[in-house]
Amino acid sequence: MRRLILFDGECNFCDASVQFIIKRDPKTLFKFTSLQSDSGIDMLKKFGVSEKTDSIVLIEGDNYFTESTAALKIARNLTGLWKLCYIFIVVPKPLRDIVYRFVAKNRYKWFGKKDACMLPSAEQRKRFL
């Protein structure tokens, strides 16, 4: 199954999250593109997600997920104890998303914005659209 993560390419926290996922995804289940890239914008349009979305977007096959659901579905596929985070899927989405939105709203203030994109290694470049 194709799994694509769309992330905020300007956000330090989001960049660190992508690096975190890459290190815990030895089967290379996930590919990545930024929300601001041409391929990211194309995917948002294809799936009917607003280009103004302020959320990580996970595309799995023909479905997409945002906010806490996307984060938990990603965690479910990582190595180590991160899989256990998926247990929080039983918490009602509106409650989970309150926490997600609080972090998302403050991420630039807490972690800053990038002036330039990271330079992925040759191996990592294969995972980006």
UniProtKB/TrEMBL annotation:
Pfam families: DCC1-like. It comes from the Bacteria. InterPro entries: DCC1-like (IPR007263), DCC_oxidoreductase (IPR052927). It comes from Solibacillus faecavium. This is Thiol-disulfide oxidoreductase DCC family protein.
